[in-house]
Amino acid sequence: MSGISAVFLRRRIALSAVAALAIALTAYTGSSSAHGAARSSSAGTLVVDTSFIISSADPARDLDPTGYIVDHALYDTLLTEHGSSTKVQPDLATSFKASPNATTYTFQLRHGVKFSDGTPVTSADVVFSLNRVINLKSAPAYLLAGLKITAKGPYTVVIKSATPNPAIPQIVTAPALGIVNAKAVMAHGGSDAANASKTDHAGQFLDQTSEGSGPYTLTQYSTNNQITLTANPNYWGPKPKFAKVVLRDMTAASQLLNVQRGSNQIALDLSSQQADSLKNNSSLQAHTSASPNLFFLQATSNPKVSPVLANHDIQQAIRYGIDYRGMVATAGTGAIQAAGLIPVQFLGGLPTSYAVKQNIAKAKKLVAQSGLKNPTVTLSYPSDISVNGLSFATLAQRVQYDLGRIGITIKVQAVPVAPFLTAYSADKYQLVQSYWGPDYADPNDYLVFLPGGSVSSRMDWPASANPALVALGKRAGSTSNNALRAGLFKQIQEKLDQSSPFFPLIQPAQAIVGSSNLTGVALNPSWLLSVAEVGTK
Amino acid sequence: MSTASEAIELPARYRRLPRVHPALRRPLAVTGAAILAIWVLVAIFAPLIAPYGPDVLGNSLSAAPSSAHIFGTDQLGRDVFSRVLYGARISLPISALLVLMSLTIGSTVGSLAGYFGGVVDGVIMRIVDLVFAFPAIILALVVTAVLGPSLQNAVLALVVVSWPTYARVVRGLVMSASQREYVQASRLLGASARQTLLRDILPNVIGPVVVLATLDFGNAILLLSGLSFLGLGAQPPTAEWGAMVSYGTQYFQDWWMSTFPGLAIFSSVLALNFLGDSLRDALDPHGSWTTRGGRR
């Protein structure tokens, strides 16, 4: 499972205000000319402005948000999702079968699919691509941890897991698990051997050319300027509407200006407030929805770090003392209170009606009941990043004020993200304002929050603290019946709300703004935007 | 043409100036002093003037200026007007303290260097040169980055970068003053170094140093706000002007969040510059303080 550090560092993290400002100043000068170029080109070009976070166009090497947009357009995956839904749909695989104990998944591949160079796609390519991900040991490798991939004939792929893993269909939708042309990639230094992390040199090649079967091919790749995609003539599925897609690296401020000036434009990084300010503009469409990201508080369970927080009454007082409505309002249109840790749009997500409601009288009573005089807690948060345009400082100040009202004194401590993560993992903090971005749209990604899980262990919540809950988590994580699994995960979250060091706060708002002539402008929880699904009215 | 034109017109420079109150001859000084006085009063009486507490989160978020919130509210529903008023309680006294600290350190070190000369002077002035070699804000950034972001550390960092200015000016002044006959006489009569420095030399040095301190005060407010703007000074929820401007830039469509604290910085710095310039004209007409070099 990925550490939260990886999640922190790669998911939709805006630059700090300072850096963003500095870049905004330089980007302003560049944006006008770039826009001029886009406008003069044919109507068959879609322009997507986003703040680039991308490390490679090689799917096996990148988990970054911009990388996901690109990979999803260039490479097909076994299964996929459409629009903003997280429902698994066929892609390269037309169907799959799960064994009753959810350890073996058999995928039937689509016949007649060709890579952009005309080579047919077979099970060998799938096995090569997925094994390459595993053996490169790059960021996406953890997605396939504990899985064994084999081919059974040219059009059948079998994925076996050592332990029951009903999340596999959801996992294989990840753009990082895109299927590459095995022959072409091997010819350019690619390898799926056990020592691939040392011997594979195809990364640079895949930054220049795409070797996939997806709706687009890569024509230009520059990580600090723009990425150009051209429609793949050999694509097996419905032809994408736009012959060309240009992704441009723009700050939110430039995106706000650009999207108002043209047609066939999409801006991905506007804050919910900025999107709101464009709602009355008839030439634009603005959508805000709850992002699958989760802001939460995490308390230490180690009485040596904070005797105050180890007290159950204080933990519950915190839960009832926070003004969630005020917090949601601060986060802007589209944000919602998180009832549990799993996003509401995922399987097993608790509906908002289950959410804890602020109850000051109850919280004050709990503080008095704890017997502690003037309880004081230090709340630490990363000072130099923001998620979905929302800074951690904003939420931390809300928490400080709300808990001050029920008699818990909060000292806030701002720490730059790198030292913050180090101290967070070392159980140095009393209370942390933290965040989790999903790696794939499945509740199994949240098992790390159970006692003894990788997130819980950061602040000393061991498996021994609640063995019953751990057992319930094991059961939920390995149940293959999805309805049953959803029920178990809901049960787990309700238990966590009754007693745990986790305090889910909000799912912030994610905004997408596009020209009003476009269709298919929808936010996907995993890859933000599927450019191939964007069309015109 | 009036009949007066038949009288002999004197060139302007021979004409008698109209009688005005001495203060009005320095309108800038009066303006500066008035603005500063207002800010000092605001700082003292902020709890009485401010309609809300600085950290009270209200229910109207990001509200434009209205009668209930004349400067609007920020993202968390705090009253910007109240926060700007409370901000004076941080920016003014802390900048004053900062100036006082750098003045004390710089003057002491500078007068030792100027008075004793030789090796003492050499060592001290090389240290001063070393600090001068870096742009002030960059050095302050480095120091706060090492010490960790907080208001105290920001003040420490700024003291580190600003004392050499005083050291250099005071050294020069002390050097020239100690060549004077009366200082020589006092030393011949057996006065100790301390006596000579405090009694004979200090009165000659104080004028330019006061001018420098006044101008530096404005500069200190600016640097302190600058560090807070970069997230290295005051930490949330402190109502510090620079931090407020920085916070407001995240929501630039809500212009009031950063404009009003920005105006507060602007007006107080302007007032101190007016006052400093006028003081320089009055106390130090020869401009000896410019010996610090064209650093700013």
Summarize the structure.
Chain A has 537 residues and is α+β, with helices and mostly antiparallel strands. Helix content of chain A is 33%, strand content 21%.
Looking at CATH, the homologous superfamily of chain B is MetI-like
Shape of chain A: globular
User: Main β-sheet of chain A, in a few words?
Assistant: 7 strands, mixed
CATH topology tier name of the largest domain in chain A: D-Maltodextrin-Binding Protein, domain 2
Please tell me the CATH architecture of chain B by its name. Orthogonal Bundle
User: Biggest β-sheet of chain B, characterized?
Assistant: none
Kindly report the CATH topology of chain B.
Answer: MetI-like fold
Helix content of chain B: 55-70%
CATH class of chain B, named Mainly Alpha
Please count the helical segments of chain A.
18
- Name the CATH superfamily assignment of the largest domain in chain A: Periplasmic binding protein-like II
> Which segments of chain A are poorly predicted (pLDDT under 50) over 5 or more consecutive residues?
1-7, 9-43
What's the domain count of chain B? Answer: 1
The chain-level structural class of chain A is: alpha+beta
What gross morphology of chain B would you assign?
Answer: flat
Indicate the mean pLDDT of chain B: 86
3D structure, described in words:
The complex is a heterodimer of chains A (537) and B (296). With 537 residues, chain A is α+β, with helices and mostly antiparallel strands. Chain A folds into 2 domains: 312 residues, 3-Layer(aba) Sandwich (D-Maltodextrin-Binding Protein, domain 2); 214 residues, Dipeptide-binding Protein, domain 3. Chain A is 33% helix and 21% strand. Chain A has a 7-stranded mixed β-sheet with strand order 9-10-11-2-12-22-13, sandwiched between helices. Chain A has a 6-stranded mixed β-sheet with strand order 15-21-14-20-16-19, sandwiched between helices. Chain A has a 4-stranded antiparallel β-sheet with strand order 5-6-8-7, covered by helices on one side. Chain A is globular, with a radius of gyration of 24 Å. The N terminus of chain A is likely disordered. Chain B has one domain: MetI-like fold. In chain B, 66% of the residues lie in helices and 0% in strands. Chain B is built from 9 helices and no strands. The termini of chain B are far apart. The C terminus of chain B is likely disordered. Classes of the chains: A alpha+beta (537), B mainly alpha (296). Chains A and B meet through helix 2, helix 10, helix 12, helix 14 and strand 19 of A and helix 8 of B.
